[in-house]
Amino acid sequence: MLRLSRYFIRETTGLYIFGVAAFCLLLSIDMLTTWSKFLLEQEASAATVGRLMLYKLPMFLHLSMPIAIVFAILLATGRLAKDSELKAAYSLGVKPFNMLFPMLFFALLISLLTLLNNGFIEPVAQRSYDQLVDSFFYTKPPPETQTNVAYRISDDSIYFAGRIRADEFDSNIANLSGIYVLRPDGSSISAPEGNWNSEERSWLLYDAEIVQPDGSKEVRPELSLAFETASDAAEVLVDSASLTLAELNNRLAEAQRTGGQLRDLRHSFHTRIADAFSALIFALIASVLGLQLHGRASGFGWTIVLLVLFWALWTLSGQLFEQNVLSPVVAAWLTSGLVGVVGLGLAWWRLR
Fold first, then answer.
1. Domain map of the chain by residue range?
2. Residue 336 DSSP label
3. How confident is the model over 47-101, as pLDDT tens digits?
4. CA distances from 233 to 204, 240, 242, 269, 319 (A)
């Protein structure tokens, strides 16, 4: 069985590498088609185009590594079925269920590599990609912006800003608009504009109106409020796509402590993990179907069917999340969860 397992893995590995390369090539062609006119207008050099492709490669791998496992397993088992090698193994007493394990072991290794790519390599590459793209359009990249952001501070005060925009010249300063602060004693403060100073841990409000619980009002040209958080303005405004899993986890903990927005952060965090381990789930259902194939044509046919279904589920879950139909965790794990349940059911029904 050990020799047979090594043989299966060897057959699958070559096809897997080919599949990853093919899917990355298709994605890069699609990207170049989108960018081609602009790159020609900007007279971008071959080196610049190469850097764009290099920085986007981790994103291509994010999509290609889980999908290619389906391609590799189904074509490998289709070839084994065509040459009657599966029948030979079955005739020697090897149970189909036992033949799942080498392919699942291979898929587990791929999932761990994909997790490393999704969680750590891709965010770093995304930062470099954004800087390179911004250099085409701006002498200075546009400041990061967030809208409708709320925080709960340690004294139970609620701070809200309609817009937070990073300062162009100082990363420790963010410009605030549409400010409203609710204090534990029932008083409230509103201001049209202000600044968030990360070094001083404060919000400075301009033309602030203070309303006491008894209804009395007071207007101050400037009002400084303590704003104690573990994160500074520059960290909060960074796009989640540019954060590693560790940084996302820290941002989630801080947002939960201060009452910040959690939905997008949770979805990004769980999506990266779910997408990585989808390789293992996809390998399960591909193996179950592959071990029942009768030839290479069947393997190729099932490859097309499964890839279309997986992509449709991925797209649907993302759209349902955007429409607030699904929670972040459910949307992230929907594809892997459904495929996993179907795969386990098929394995129990057809391979036991």
1. 2-138+264-350, 145-237
2. H
3. 888 898 999 999 999 999 999 999 999 888 888 888 888 888 878 777 877 788 8
4. 14, 14, 15, 21, 30
Token couple for 107: 């898929």
What's the pTM value of the predicted model, to 2 decimals? 0.76
The CA distance from 192 to 180, in Å, is 9
Largest Cα separation within the chain, whole Å, is 90
Three state DSSP letters for 1-51: CHHHHHHHHHHHHHHHHHHHHHHHHHHHHHHHHHHHHHHHHCCCCHHHHHH
Distance CA 290, CA 79 (A): 10
H helices of the chain, in order, are: 2-41, 46-82, 85-91, 100-116, 122-137, 233-236, 245-258, 263-290, 296-322, 328-350
135-187: pLDDT as tens digits: 766 455 556 777 888 887 777 788 889 988 887 777 778 889 999 999 988 89
Cα-based torsion angle of the residue sequence 115, 145, 200, 150 in order, rounded to the nearest 10 degrees: -80
Question: Which residues, 6+ apart, have CB-to-CB distance to 225 below 8 Å?
Answer: 159, 181, 189, 202, 203, 204, 205
Cα of first residue to Cα of last residue in the chain, in angstroms, is 17
* Whether the Cβ atoms of residue 161 and residue 237 lie closer than 8 Å to each other: no
CA distance 319 to 171: 34
